[in-house]
User: Fold these one by one.
Assistant:
Number 1:
Amino acid sequence: MTRVLVTGAYGCIGAWVTRELVGREIDVVAFDLGDDPRRIALIMDETELARATRVRGDITDLVELEAVIDAEQITNVIHLAALQVPFCRDNPPLGARVNVVGTVNVLEAVARRVERMGPVVYASSIAAYDAISSGDGPGMSGIPGTIYGVYKRANEASAWLYHEERGVASIGLRPHTVFGPGRDQGLTSAPTSAMLAAVAGRPF
């Protein structure tokens, strides 16, 4: 039995991942602190929505996260819960709790159940690369350009050490620009806003 916990399921990427899992007839538990499924509702009909178990929860609470993993018999975690660049910039301590502590909580919860859990899949970001000066290519030897990027790099290092020390397999993906239905906030949401404005005949 495969049963996947998607953290941050009410975000744009989380909603699309949840839809994809439901479409593949994989049991999915949508885990999010929010209680507004509007992004999922944009891309899934009522029948599809009914096939996803929805659980309200806080990724910064390890005890709560572990309880959900056990109660829902989770075998795999796709970790997408995070605060985006503007929110991390406005409130760095909260950004660190959600983005860094939340990721460590996922890795720790899986490490404690490593014999029955599949690899963790998590979202890093292109923001993890060094701040790019004119003419420079992407690198990882300097400092990212945002505090959000610093958090994402910390998550990649945490995942590496959890693999080395605790045997937790994982894969982190570094998306660049995400666009489409549900992409309504964050630094790279402008292309989606522009497309919506064009369809509505509004200037952007």
Note: The first helix runs from residue 12 to 23.
Number 2:
Amino acid sequence: MSTPADYANELCAAHAFSMQAPVFDKLYAGNTIVQYKRQRVRAHLEQLLSPGSHILELNAGTGDDAIYLAQQGHYVHATDISAGMQEQLVQKVKQYDVHAFVSNELCSYTALSTLKNRGPYDCIFSNFAGLNCTGDLDSVLSSFYKLLRPGGIVVLVMLPKFCLWEALLVFKGKFKTATRRFFSAGGRSAKIDGAAFTCWYYSPRYIKRQVKQQYNLLALEGLCTFVPPSYIEHFAERYPRLFAFLCKLENRYKKSWPWKNIGDYYIISFLRK
């Protein structure tokens, strides 16, 4: 069960992201590696979805994925604890005229028992490490089961406990970034525009262990293992041939050990028994 401290941290993270909500889309639209990450996640997700799937999206942000999935004919209930993000999402729903496919609800993923639209859903989806903002991930994962139909799927994009690219930054003297995932069992402080919150890192092994009684693993793949993280700015533009080569390497080895475990993120999916 989520603790008051855990919920307070999620509110801090929500406040940080809310302040940046109006500029997120502009920043991401111009980042080639962010677009690469989105394409990878969507490809993983679409391989598992049936036509016209009903999806519960957690930490939906400004709605980029919800709009995309709606345009593919899926029905998305987009949730977030950030009021600023939800406002941006509602504007996009109007802009793209996908009212019939996208609904939204202000709700914490640590309080899914209070969710008004309870499905059942064909898929629960969370992108770009939203669930790394809780230190109570086991309780969050356990809350999914009653919201999914039998045979439903869960697709999560998470930050692991070790990232090869980050570790290599020690050779550039960026010790704080290079070591921030080390010894992080109690969480590590993070900031966005001066607003502080705590981030936890979870290994794929941890998640597999938590869900093994009620789910079967479908797939696990590394994301930004060979391709650098998006915060290494303008890499794709400066080194287009190298970027293309690294994309090919990642596509080849994304499901292989150890590469599937040591990217900036990993994508994990599992099936409700």
Note: The first helix runs from residue 4 to 29.
